[in-house]
């Protein structure tokens, strides 16, 4: 692991991804995807909630994630449309089924937050660094409120905002640009914190001052993969930044 520069403390704002960075919800998403994909005829081998999730689905919109994984298994699944019922016959139906399962799983159990992220959010808040959370998920605002961290974030851009504003999903930087815009900073003044490959790529594409990759999986290639997709530094947990302390320019 690289020792992170205190650079984060010199950014005017930090835009955080939500799932897997603030809330420990990536695992719930991955489990819901597995249940949805593994009933699709022709999905062989079954969906791997670790590697397939990371490579094909994580950070993307539901439809983009479903399409990417099914294509990766060599399936020519028709796209379908928003009226499709949850099922297995079209990409939209599989995505709808994942949503149905995810909502069921959420109702069955709560979602945890990463304590290191909460500590960093508190420290950034005290240091006057503005923070936003972004997510492709329509559930993000609700998750953040339920997790008790909504008040530490000046703004949240989620899947509902994406639909309303017509924002494309990651690796397009639109979500991060909207987050920076709402914090009244230029993208080049803000850091982006992401755990997904499509997400660090979006941060790089958006011209962020720095892109922090959070490597929760710590697999054999996960750190290199995050770097290759655009992370300037990679950390296992965000409390790493607390030990570098607050060293703002001019102090
Ligand atoms: Mg994520």
Mean pLDDT: 92
Lateral strand order in the biggest sheet? 3-2-1-4-5-6
Query: In percent terms, what proportion of residues is strand?
Result: 5-15%
Bound molecules: magnesium ion
The termini sit apart by 27 Å
Q: Compute the number of helices.
A: 11
Secondary-structure class: alpha/beta
| Strand/helix succession | EHHHHHEHEHHEHEHEH
The major β-sheet equals: 6 strands, parallel
**How large, in whole angstroms, is the Cα Rg?**
18 Å
Helical content band: 40-55%
Would you kindly provide a written description of the structure presented here, covering whatever features stand out?
The protein has helices spanning 26-37, 51-57, 62-72, 91-108, 115-127, 140-146, 159-165, 174-182, 197-205, 222-228, 240-244, and strands at residues 13-17, 130-134, 155-157, 190-194, 210-214, 233-235. The protein has 251 residues and is of the alpha/beta class. A 6-stranded parallel sheet has the order 3-2-1-4-5-6, with helices on both faces. Helix 1 (26-37) crosses helix 4. The protein is globular. The two termini are 27 Å apart. It binds magnesium ion. Magnesium ion binds at residues 17, 19-21, 26, 58-59, 195-196, 199.
């Amino acid at each position: 692991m690289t020792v992170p520069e205190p650079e984060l403390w010199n950014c005017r704002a930090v835009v955080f991804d939500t799932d897997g960075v603030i809330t420990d919800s990536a695992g719930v998403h991955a489990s819901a995807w597995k249940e949805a994909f593994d009933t699709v005829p022709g999905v062989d081998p079954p969906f791997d909630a670790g590697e397939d999730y990371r490579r094909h689905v994580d950070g993307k919109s539901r439809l983009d994630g479903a399409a990417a994984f099914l294509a990766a298994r060599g399936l020519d699944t028709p796209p379908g449309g928003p009226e499709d019922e949850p099922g297995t016959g079209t990409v939209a139906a599989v995505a709808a089924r994942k949503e149905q399962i995810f909502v069921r799983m959420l109702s069955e159990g709560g979602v945890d937050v990463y304590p290191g992220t909460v500590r960093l959010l508190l420290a950034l808040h005290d240091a006057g660094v503005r923070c936003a959370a972004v997510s492709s998920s329509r559930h993000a605002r609700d998750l953040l409120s339920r997790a008790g961290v909504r008040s530490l974030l000046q703004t949240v851009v989620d899947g509902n905002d994406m639909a309303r504003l017509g924002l494309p999903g990651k690796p397009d930087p639109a979500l991060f640009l909207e987050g920076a815009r709402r914090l009244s900073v230029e993208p080049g003044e803000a850091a982006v914190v992401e755990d997904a490959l499509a997400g660090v790529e979006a941060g790089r594409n958006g011209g962020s001052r720095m892109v922090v990759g959070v490597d929760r999986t710590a697999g054999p290639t996960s750190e290199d993969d995050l770097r290759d997709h655009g992370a300037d530094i990679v950390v296992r947990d965000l409390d790493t930044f607390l030990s570098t302390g607050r060293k703002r320019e001019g102090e």
